[in-house]
Each structure stands twice: as C-alpha cells, then as structure tokens.
Write a structure and sequence with these properties.
This is Peptidase. With about 500 residues, the chain is of the alpha/beta class. It has 16 helices and 13 strands. It has two domains: about 50-285, no CATH class; about 305-490, no CATH class. A four-stranded mixed sheet has the order 4-5-9-8. Helix 1 links the parallel strand 4 and strand 5 (about 110).
C-alpha cells in the first residue's frame, strides 16, 4: 500500500511449510452451500472435487526413460526426468489445436549444480551460479539446477512444484516448436504467461487422475504449487526500471497465478489466445511498479500497522462501498453473541462491529523477503494483514443484505468482495480525514499469500474457510477483475 502520510502496504503471514488452509480454529470444514458459478463453488477446484492426500510420484510409476546429460544420478534428476516423460506424453496426446506445427519432443535434457564453480557451459551459457530452470530454444533443450533450485522447491513446495516448474519450461518448448510465438518479436511477458497457462493445462490432467506417473490433490498440494509460482515471480521494480525491462518481464505473482488458473480451468485454447492486449485488459488499472523514494531507490510500499492505518483503511472502505450502516471499528476485545473470533480481525453481526486485534495483525503483517527459494517466509507484508480487516468489513455488506454469514457461500463471497475492495484501492480515495492508503505493486501477491497460508480473507463470520487455496484465489481474483455486483450475482 502507498499512503500519503505513511508507507505503502505489504503483509506478513505464516511460514511456507504451514500452508494448510487453516482458519482461526485450524479447521477446513464448511457449512453446506453452493455458489452460482462453478468456479467459485467452495467444494470444487475448477470443477474437480476438493481433495487432500498423497501428491507426487505414484508408488508404481514406471521408471523414467531417456538420458540426462551431466547427471549425478540422484533423486532430483530422477524426479525431473520422470516429470519430463509425463509432460511430453501429455502434450503428444493433447497438442493444442492452435499449434501451427506438429508435436516435437525436446532434444536434450541437462542437469547441473549451480553451486559448483566447475559446472559446465550448456548451449554456450555458463551454469555456475545459475539458480534456474530453462528451455533454451536455440538448442531445443531443457536444463535445471539440481544443486539449489530444485532441492529448495521440493523442500518448501513439494515434489509437484518441481513438476510444475518443468511443465512451465515445456510450455516454452510447446510455443516454439508448435509455432505459437516468434522468439524475436513476441514479448517475454506473453511467452511467460502462456507457459504458466500451459502448465495449468497439464497439471489439471494430473489432478484428474490421468497420469500414470504422478498424483496431485486439489487441496493443499495445489496450494503449494501456486505458492511456488508466487515465490519465483519477478521482483517488483520502480516504474523506471519496469519501463526499461518491460520487454523481458515475466509478470507479477498475481499475473502468473491468473494465467495458470486460466489454463487449469479453460484449457490450451485459452493459453494460445494470451497476447499483449489480453494481458493489458486483464491488468487494467492494477499497479505494476513501485514508487521511487527521494533517494532514487524503490519504495517497498510497507505501512506500519497501527490504529491510524486500520482506521484509514475502514474510512476508505466506507467510501468505496457506501453502506447504509457502516460497521463500527473497535480495537477492544469483546465477546460476540452470534459469531466466533477470527485471528487478526473479527466481525460481530449483533453490534455491526469490526474488531481489529492489532498485535495479531502486526505479527501477520511482518514483511517477508525475496531472498531466493530458500527463504521460507515467502512474500508476506502489510496487505496480508490488512486484507483480513477488509474481509471482516465486507461481511457487514452481506449482513446489510440479510445474507447468511456462516456458510461456505459466504466465505466465497467474502473472498470476492475482498478482491473488489482491493481494486477500489488502486486509486486515491478521498476521505474526511484527508489520509491515503493506496494499493501498490506487489500488494495483490501478498493478499494471495494470505489466502494460501491462512485463508482468513476467504472465510465466513466464524473463520471457517474454503478448503482449497486454488478456489479461494479464484474468488478473490473474481472481485479484483470484475466488480462488487458480480460478487453478489455470481456467488449466491
């Protein structure tokens, strides 16, 4: 967030290893209810049932085939080759109708250890120090770092995160070998988001149970894959830096998750249609760069979470939504006769009060970092905490319409309305106090991290959240990209 009198908004949450979809009580059960749109159905993930259980290589998976150059014959290379076998099998059977050339397999796969100074040169490029995975179109090869990148991805996000990274890289092979892009003229942003989208198409096939090599549960495991995409998104830059590197940008975490979910929900035809115009339309009005500080560096966009900040936020929400009876804001803990407390902030329908727990919000809002894949704190910051306050406020909007607040549908609608509020905060909102709190680049990523790690912003009045992080994120995105009316019309 960017205030006129304080710094911008970014939020902190729980550690990466605790992505479990827990509400304030740690439960994931929901009262029955069904959203009008299947996309927002709390019991589904893109039309598939919510499931938790084993995810990763099947115990009876066939042995990987093919040769990995420069391999150490270890566990990581075994997993990577098995992944590429599966991904290539899928695309051989499901080559996009939009492709202008027939299926073509990747010619070479190469493993290296980025921590080894003597790591080889691959396709005329040094791999020592390259914590990366890539498709190199000039040599039609896929390469990966077995030393640092994949071990960290596996440790913090699970085996399917490694599979997801390689599905993205094969998405680039599909683009080039299928004639869907021109490597000289197609912007990197378009190529990257198409590849994220193609990864979503493949991983849905796995989630449907079609793969002979892997399983993917649509609950916790898929949330980990999404969290991994957020972690490896582009760093947020200043407007000047962004303009200079726009042609080579991969996109924000929110961009990447959007593209992945488009593929998971709608198939490869949707991926092939992603172009500059589609991305600009999808991003319309959303900030993509940070403000510059007087020193010339990037303002990280963090605000101090205190009574002034939360009070300003509620003032802004009153102006965005204009409820007939705005909820009262309180910082004093008190019992509520018709709702349970939730961590960070709660809503009491009986008194129409939003109760903010500053100590909890400050803990949730501690900034995380972009210190590489080995940083388990993720991309948390102020908006991870402040989006919780927003989610309790929008329960008051639903209460004003006499809608039930203790159902799964209420949880889904809450996520959507929280997203709609975030859209409203992309511009300066004039309020009586004259203060400001404006969404800045990266804030949406931090809200999404909150949706994945604690789920409060996608929970009902008692803190019971939607069981699948994927669907929480879909509902939130629906509010960001559509409007308030859509949240009430499509989630009922």
């Amino acid at each position: 967030m960017r205030p006129g009198w304080v710094k911008a908004l970014v939020i902190a949450g729980c550690v990466l290893l605790s992505i479990t979809g827990c509400g304030s009580s740690g439960k994931t059960s929901m009262v029955s209810g069904r959203a009008v749109s299947g996309l927002y159905d709390p019991a589904q993930v893109g039309g598939l049932p919510v499931s938790d259980g084993p995810s990763g290589p099947r115990p009876n998976a066939p042995a990987p085939t093919g040769t990995v150059k420069n391999t150490d014959n270890g566990e990581i290379d075994h997993l990577a080759l098995l992944s590429l076998n599966d991904i290539e099998d899928f695309w051989q059977q499901n080559w996009p109708a939009a492709a202008k050339k027939p299926f073509k397999a990747v010619s070479t796969v190469v493993s290296y250890d980025s921590s080894d100074p003597s790591s080889p040169i691959v396709c005329r490029t040094k791999t020592a120090g390259a914590i990366n995975a890539a498709y190199v179109f000039s040599c039609n090869l896929v390469e990966w770092d077995r030393g640092q990148l994949f071990p960290a991805a596996k440790k913090f996000f699970g085996d399917m995160a490694v599979v997801g990274i390689l599905a993205h890289e094969f998405g680039h092979a599909l683009q080039v070998n299928g004639g869907l892009v021109n490597t000289r003229t197609t912007p990197t942003l378009v190529m990257e988001q198409q590849a994220d989208c193609f990864a979503g198409v493949y991983l849905r096939w796995v989630a449907e149970g079609h793969s002979s090599r892997f399983t993917l549960s649509t609950g916790d495991a898929l949330s980990h894959v999404i969290a991994g995409m957020l972690k490896i998104s582009d760093p947020i830059m200043t407007e000047e830096d962004y303009e200079q590197s726009e042609d080579s940008a991969h996109g924000s975490g929110f961009d990447r998750v959007s593209a992945f979910q488009m593929g998971f929900n709608s198939g490869s035809g949707t991926c092939a249609k992603i172009d500059t115009d589609e991305i600009k339309k999808r991003r319309a009005g959303l900030p993509v760069a940070l403000q510059e500080e007087a020193s010339g560096g990037a303002d990280p966009g963090e605000v101090t979470i205190n009574e002034d900040t939360v009070g300003t936020l509620v003032e802004i929400l009153n102006k965005i939504f204009s409820p007939k009876s705005p909820p009262t804001l309180s910082f004093a803990s008190s019992s509520c006769s018709d709702a349970k407390p939730t961590r960070g902030a709660s809503y009491c329908p009986a008194t129409n009060t939003v109760v903010a727990d500053l100590a909890a919000l400050q803990e949730i809002g501690k900034p995380g970092g972009r210190k590489g894949m080995t940083d388990p704190q993720m991309l948390q910051g102020d908006n991870t905490a402040l989006s919780i306050v927003v989610s309790r406020y929008v329960l008051a909007l639903q209460h004003e319409r006499n809608l039930p607040l203790d159902t799964a549908v209420a949880a889904s609608r809450t996520a959507c309305l929280t997203g709609a509020a975030q859209r409203g905060m992309t511009q300066v909102v004039s309020i009586p106090s004259g203060k400001q709190l404006v969404l800045t680049a990266g804030d949406l990523d931090k809200a999404v991290i909150g949706l994945l790690v604690n789920g409060v912003a996608a929970s009902d009045v008692n803190g019971e959240n939607m069981p699948a992080g994927f669907t929480r994120t879909i509902a939130f995105r629906g509010g960001v990209l559509d409007n308030v009316d859509e949240c009430f019309d499509r989630i009922a």
